[in-house]
Structures are given as structure tokens and as C-alpha cells.
Design brief:
Blueprint: H1 10-26, H2 31-38, H3 42-58, H4 78-95, H5 99-123
Helix pairs in contact: 1-2, 1-3, 1-4, 4-5
Length: about 130
């Protein structure tokens, strides 16, 4: 078995993001939500994700903005975020291995936890 390399450049990020979202689009649970939300704007979303991950992993200011607001109203719960992380980790582990790869998985897990927590907070009227 060939040794997998670590995520090290923009081309690696594009491979990671494209493969991950290809898997999401085909997923029975997540696919309908993403496909309904993005419709014909997938290329725009992918470009944002390239910049987001460049910023997160390489400290390159390729993304600005707040990632949470577009997700706030999605019909998702912990089950969706758990599936998102499972697909993310499975996808990335087939392609890469190393310190930055582990950082990406940790950041994705933390982001999913935070997004789920914030969505639950905003949905629960007694928290307002």
C-alpha cells in the first residue's frame, strides 16, 4: 500500500473538498439538503470551501466572512452533523495522512459540534 502524503497545497485542498462534496451529494441523508440549498451554485460553494480551508490550514487569507449564518436555517440536527463528520473523515483518510490532515479532521469535528450547538440554541425559544 502506498504511503499517503499530507495536505500541503491548494491542489490538495481542492482534491479534498471536491471528493468530500461528491460524496455528500450522493449521500441519502445529506445529499438532498445540500442539493436543494445549492442547486446550480455548487461551483461557487466549492470555491468558497477552497478559500475556507486554505485560511484554516495554511493561514492564507483566502476566505473572509462568517461560515455559520448560511447554515443557521438548514433542516439539520446532530444526526446530520455526525454523518457529515463521518463522510469527511472517511474521505480525507483515503487521500491523505499527516499533521495537517489530522488538523483538518479536528477542525471539521469542532466546526460540526459548534454549528450543531448554535443551531440548537437558536431553535430553542427559551434560550432567546
Amino acid at each position: 500500500m502506498a504511503t499517503l502524503k499530507d495536505i500541503s497545497n491548494l491542489e490538495d485542498i481542492k482534491l479534498m473538498v471536491n471528493t468530500f462534496y461528491d460524496n455528500v451529494r450522493k449521500d441519502d441523508l445529506l445529499g438532498p439538503i445540500f442539493n436543494d440549498k445549492l442547486q446550480d451554485r455548487w461551483s461557487e460553494h466549492l470555491e468558497k470551501m477552497y478559500g475556507f480551508w486554505q485560511t484554516i490550514l495554511f493561514d492564507v487569507r483566502a476566505y473572509s466572512g462568517s461560515p455559520f449564518p448560511p447554515h443557521k436555517q438548514l433542516p439539520v440536527d446532530k444526526t446530520h452533523f455526525d454523518r457529515w463528520i463521518q463522510i469527511f473523515n472517511t474521505t480525507i483518510d483515503k487521500q491523505f495522512s499527516g499533521t495537517i490532515t489530522e488538523e483538518a479532521k479536528m477542525r471539521a469535528t469542532n466546526m460540526a459540534f459548534m454549528f450543531n450547538h448554535k443551531i440548537e440554541y437558536f431553535r430553542n425559544p427559551e434560550n432567546q
